[in-house]
Known about the structure:
The complex is a heterodimer. By secondary structure, chain A is of the alpha+beta class.
Amino acid sequence: MKEVVEILAKALVDNPDQVIVDQNATERTVHLQLTVAPEDMGKVIGKQGKIANAIRTIVKAAAVKDGRRIIVDIDQ
Amino acid sequence: MKVAEKTGKTLEEAIEACLVELGVKRDQVSVEILEEPGKGFLGLFGKRLAKVKVSYEDDPGVLACAFLKELITAMDVEAVMEVLQREDHFLVNITGTDLGILIGRRGDTLESIQFLTNLAVAKKLSDRTRIIIDVEGYRKRREETLVKLAKRLAEKVKKTGHRIVLEPMSPQERRIIHTALQNEWRISTFSEGEGPHRRVVISLKRSNKDVS
Lengths: 76, 212
């Protein structure tokens, strides 16, 4: 799942080398923290969070088999 | 269009260096020779290096497939992709087994994948090309379902006279409903709501006096 967020973020930003995804997993939830360059924030969030939500939808689909809850947060 | 210029001892070497820089294969590029390599006098003096210019046109279909392949593999799904170039868009067909994960509830996931693929490809290209992604003929099946639904609801509206509000849909799906009912002369359709909450309303046309 971490990889999915990484692939998506890197394809969207201007500074792919500054994309970092941290994973924090517990029994029930997986917390993914996406960090991008400040000027790339808009590229991963989008109008009304449209891009961020698309990323979440895809990650959730990827995690269906896993069964745990997925949270994707975005940080500068 | 992307271009690289390199020199090398042989033509092949120079071309290879360009391919490495551009990250593409030989059959995707066109090569222009700027300088032939020369042996010089007795192979000793005035050796000339080969110089070439390699350029290639990014292909939206190829870019889309590369992105999708990487994404789908990371999602742990095995699938095959086929690209069709249409008049005003590229269609990527994904086939395989157990692809429901790529479609999601009412096509949610498929919409998201298509949306992000378009963004990712547009980022690498100068001109915008629309990319439509389909999984196992899902879009066609969904269209048939929506047309049937629209006709059935239109009949209900005619019978009861009450308007019916559908669930929120994407622009493409709303268009399918509008188109399906445009020849129903007693029925009018329009959309209301904003952004992701926009939904189609099916209602009776107002009395003939109003219409004319």
